[in-house]
Amino acid sequence: MMTRGGDAVPGGRAEPIGAGDPARVGAYRIIGRLGAGGMGTVYLGESDHGRLVAVKVVRPALASDEAFRRRFRTEVQRARQVPPFCTAEVLDADPATQHTLADQMVGTVAYMAPERFDNAPGKSLTVAADIFAWGAVVAYAGTGRSPFDGGTPLATATRIMTEPPDLTGLAGPLRKLVEAALQKRAADRPAARELLDLLLSTGMAAESPALRNAAQEVQTTFAGVPRPIAEPGPTRGVRRRRLIAAVLTAGVGMAALGLALRARLDEPASRPGDSRPQGSAPSTARPFRFAAGADVADPLTRPEVIRANSDNSSSCRYAGALVVTVARDGTYECGSTSQRFAGAHRISVEVDLRTAGSCAAVQFLGTEMGSYGVNVCAHGYVFNWYEGDSVEELGTYLLPDRTRLREPHRVAIEIRGDTAALHRDAREIAVVELEKGVPPGGGKVLIGGYGDPAGGKAPYQVAFRNLEIIG
């Protein structure tokens, strides 16, 4: 595998090649030896144009194993999904890397989960092993040492299985995440999606452009990971059609963010003299003038276009705005427009997130077959497809700055042929493909709320004002 991490040789760390080392691998001339591990040897290579790359040559015994090569192809595909600024960019590969084979163990001991050392028959690994590796990598990035270093592979393996990690030098929320990732029992570790949501919920990503961009790239790889859906009416179940194959990729991408995250740990959560809860702002309705000739121009102060309803403590009620309360994790739907909207049209509404974890839900092009929808959350927009009792997540798009509670923003969805542009105030956040098709006769618009357990606890509440639809 050939990767590029920069155009400068790490000072003094490349050793001369020996008699048994290759002079050339593929398109790269071998000019030095960077190190060796359980899977093979890493060399310093140079292209014909002078580009320096790291070249990993897998051990012959592994490279000749077809099952191993097949697994390696999958790993290469995953690695290529990681943004180049998060980790070394994969330039080329000839199939050969994976964690485990039958009766064989491959990898660097310092990053292996305890279950990797368990030879019990019939026991298989899960992505929890990769979460453990994520924790070990972030700990190394943040402290400059392995959290289980024992001096030798055997001693390190023993510490991994029997002793707590040494996280001296890590503090605050990042330390807690790493501790969770390094739990001995696989079942006690968080999932990759939970890790990403927790990283974003600290607000650190919003403060660092590079970290925010990296997190956004990683989140887009979660295109198929569904979130919990509530029972209140109507209920939406979850169909796990496209559970992302690159969960490991997300873990690797997040691991590369360790140093940037650590740089944010010691900053105060709020400014002196600020008595408001962190992340909140005074709730103030914005002046709004409806466009002349708008198909819908509803201030949402009474049930004219969107009906009020309630079900098991969840409700849609009018109190100076359309206030949606979601009593459980998931989606609660108020109601839809009676009118269908076809062709190019624009839906816009003012959104006010009132509690942690609350998201505004706006569905469009709704028919008996299904509908598209956007959950507008504090950290970003989640684009979904709803069909029957299932929800499929089609993409997540981070906002340039995290929305504070009770800080109103105007959300707009502009349908253009087979795409939809998502806006926050006057800024375009993303253009998404309507990959499930566009109904020829158009569809209805529906409003509701969504409770995200990764961001807060029920009950969740969001308010809507000034719904405008221009067809």
Automatic annotation (TrEMBL):
Residues 1-211 form the Protein kinase domain. GO terms for molecular function: ATP binding; protein serine/threonine kinase activity. Signal peptide: none annotated. It comes from the Bacteria. The keyword Transferase applies. Keywords: ATP-binding, Kinase, Nucleotide-binding, Transferase. The keyword Membrane does not apply. Residues 267-287 are annotated as: Disordered. PANTHER family: MITOGEN-ACTIVATED PROTEIN KINASE KINASE KINASE 20-RELATED, SERINE_THREONINE-PROTEIN KINASE YBDM-RELATED. This is Protein kinase domain-containing protein.
